[in-house]
Amino acid sequence: MSRISTGNGDHGRTHLWSGEEVPKDDPRVEAYGTLDELQAFMGAARHAAGSPEVKTLLENLRHEVDKAAAELASADSPALVAQKEIRAVEEAIEDFEMKVPLKGFVVTGSTPGGSSLDLCRVVARRAERRAVRLASRDTVSALLLVFLNRLSDLLFLLSCYEDHREGKLTFRNKKEERNF
Known about the structure:
Layout: E1 13-15, E2 21-23, H1 27-48, H2 52-72, H3 83-99, E3 106-107, H4 112-135, H5 142-165, E4 170-171
Antiparallel strand pairs: 1-2, 3-4
Helix pairs in contact: 1-2, 1-4, 3-5, 4-5
């Protein structure tokens, strides 16, 4: 059995899947690490979600996020996120757009499932920003960036759906809008 704690990272360095040693705050580590964080949040959201359909979708999406993280884990990684993964997310978006009456600025997180999914959304957006930052200095698949962008859109809709199915989807009233 391999050891979990080896002490190899005690000095702020880690190894990419390619074997290359880099600082732990390297943009590549930040990008795939944020996807690892997203996957953990999605696991928690799966347990908080009330809809069996959302639970199943989240389990499937966690596998896709794992592929995206693996693709980012090394500059030598093959492209793992393809057009079919993007299309599956887009189809889910189309499906949930039909189920959620979006008619203004939504205040998400009125239910445990909605709140958990909204946390996933913001982590997905951060993962996208980390991947874009990495792409400014290294090769990142354009399809992976599209996937991350669509994924956060879907997570927003799923948050709204969870709130809507419990009758708690909240919209900000025009009179309450403020400039911040």
